[in-house]
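$ run holo --ligand "5-hydroxymethyl-3,4-dihydroxypiperidine" --emit C-alpha cells
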Amino acid sequence: MSFPDGFLWGAATAAHQIEGNNVHSDWWQAEQTGRLPHPSGSACDSWNRWRDDIRLLSEIGLNAYRLSIEWARVEPYAGRFDRVALDRYRAQLEALRRAGIEPLVTLHHFTNPRWLAERGGWSNPDVVPRFVEYAGRVIDQVKDLVRWWVTINEPSILAFKSYIEGAWPPQEPGNLRGYVRLLRHAARGHVRVSRLLRRARPDAMVSMAFAIWPLQALRPWSPIDQAMAFVGDWLWQGRVIRRTLPALDWIGLNYYSRTLVGWPRPSTTPPGSRERTDFGWEIYPEGLYAVLRRLGRFKKPVLITENGIADADDDQRPAYIVAHARQMQRAIEDGVDLRGYMHWSLLDNFEWAEGYEQHFGLATRDRVLRPSARLYGRIARANGAADDLLGTFSVT
Ligand code: IFM
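-- output --
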C-alpha cells in the first residue's frame, strides 16, 4: 500500500474540545447553567499545553495537523478582538511550521461566542457579516502560515443537533426554520470568507468539512427504503455541498460510518454481526471508498478532514486505521485526487453531549500515546504500508 508523494498524514482536533475554559462561548454557558449534561472544564488544557501537542504529533511522525480557531476567544465581546488570543494562535502556527507540520485551520467548529448566540446565532442573517469580520481578523493574522482552510465544520450536523434534535445550543428541537436558516447562512458565510481568503492568498485552498454518513436502504430490495435513503441523503448532506461547490477548492470529508434507513423505522443501526465502536457506530470502511468515489465526481481534490473511532482500550483502532487506509488507496487507484487524511483525534477530548465518555484519541488527555498511534505513525512515515502490516490486520 503506497500513497502519492506529499500526502498529508495528520490528526484533527477542535478548539472547544481540547483547549479548555472556553468561557465566552455558548457551549460553556449551557454547560455551566446545567443545560448540557457535562462540563468541558479544562478539557486537554491545550490552550496552555499546545507545545506538548506539537511534540506528540512529531513523535507519532505526522506531517499535518487540523486545528480550529475559537471565535469566542478571538472576539469575546462583539467587535472587541483579543490581541493576546490572536498572537497565541500565531505562535502555535509558527511552531507547527518550524516542526515541519502543515496546518489546516478551521474557522468555526460548532461553538459560538455568547454574544452571537444571544443575537440568534446562525439563524440570524447578521451572522454572515459577523463571521466575515471575525474571519478577516484571523486571516490577516496568520495568512502567511496557512494554506489549507476549512471555513465551517459539519454544518449539517450542527443544524440537525441544534434545531432538529435540539441537544446542542441553542437547543431548539423541531425548529425547522432555524435548521434551514443555519444551512443557508453557513453557505453564504463560506462563500464570502472564501473570497476573502483568495484575495489574501491566491494559493489558498478553501473548503468546508462535510460530515457524510452515506444513507443506505435497510432492506435493499425495498423501493420505500431506497426512496427514503435517496431523499434523506439529498436533503441532509447533498444540498450543502452543491450549494457551495463553486466556492470549494477542495472537499473536506468527515467520514465515520453509514446510516441505514427504512420503513417503519426511519433510521437505525444495521442488524447483524458487524463490529461496533464504543459509541455504537458500525465499523464500515467500504463506505469510505463509496463516498470518496462519489466526491471524486466533482473533480476537485479531496481531503479526509476526520475519520476515527471511540475505542478506550485501543483494541479496534489499529485495524480500523489500516482498513480505512486501504479504502483510501483503492479510491486513489480509481482516480480520486485524495490529498490527505486527518485522524480524529490527537487526544481523548470533550465529545460534546457525551462529555469525556468517548475516547477518540491517539493519545490520552495526559498525552500518553496509545499503541495505535505508533502503528499510524509507521504508515505515515512510510507513506504506505508493507504487506505484512496489512496481513496482521487481515485487510485485503
Ligand atoms: O468530536 C466530533 C467532532 O467535533 C466533529 N465530528 C465528529 C467527531 C466525533 O463525534
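-- notes --
The beta strands are 8-12, 64-68, 102-108, 148-153, 205-211, 215-217, 251-254, 259-261, 302-306, 338-344.
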